[in-house]
Amino acid sequence: MLRFGPVARNRVDRRLARCADVEDLRAIARRRLPGGVFDYIDGAAEDEVCVAGNAAAWRRVQLAPRVLRDVSKVDLSTTILGRPVPAPLALAPTGFARIADPEGELAVARAAAERGLPFTLSTLGTRSIEEVAAVSTGPKWFQVYVWRDRALVRDMVERAAAEGYEALLVTVDTAVLGRRERDVRRGFTLPPTIGLGTIVDGIRHPGWTWSFLRGGPITFSNVAGTSQGTAVTLSDFVSSQFDPSLSWRDLDWLRGVTDLPVVVKGVGCAADARIAADEGLPAVVISNHGGRQLDGAPPTLDLLEETVQAVGDEVEVLIDGGVRRGADLVVARALGARAAMVGRPCLYGLAAGGQRGVAHALDQLLLGAERTMALLGATSLDDLTRQHVRRC
Question: How far, in Å, CA of 222 to CA of 212, rounded?
Answer without folding.
Answer: 20
